[in-house]
């Protein structure tokens, strides 16, 4: 695993170097925020926009998903895992971007 991490960081470093050289801005999907946060944390020269900085802070504060109450007007009964999944739907709704 250490080998994969090192090579992954090397690829990211080259990628971010290209972005910096070309003054490019990379945009990522919300679903990629956790992976992107882990990759960015390994870099020393990466700058993040305000939105992604906020997402990274939310990731650091995250502890668990709380089950949500069954929606009003819903006919039926949600199982516990469905209430937990519904609670997961209340995650952040922003799209991060990163520049080198």
Count of DSSP helices?
Answer: 4
What would you call the structural class? Answer: mainly alpha
Radius of gyration: 18 Å
Query: What can be said about the biggest beta sheet?
Result: 3 strands, antiparallel
Mean pLDDT: 76
- Could you give the order of strands across the largest sheet? 1-3-2
- Helical residues, percent: 40-55%
Short account of what is shown:
The chain has 100 residues and is mainly α. It has four helices and three strands. A three-stranded antiparallel β-sheet has the order 1-3-2.
Describe the fold and architecture.
- The protein is mainly alpha-helical.
- It has a domain at 25-70 and 78-90.
- Helices cover 50% and strands 7% of the residues.
- It contains 4 helices and 3 strands.
- The protein has a 3-stranded antiparallel beta sheet.
- The protein is elongated, with a radius of gyration of 18 Å.
- Residues 92-100 have low confidence and may be disordered.
Keywords:
100 residues, mainly alpha, 3-stranded antiparallel beta sheet, 4 helices, 7% strand, elongated, disordered C terminus
Write the layout of secondary structure elements.
Layout: H1 2-21, E1 26-27, H2 33-41, E2 47-48, H3 50-61, H4 80-88, E3 97-99
Antiparallel strand pairs: 1-3, 2-3
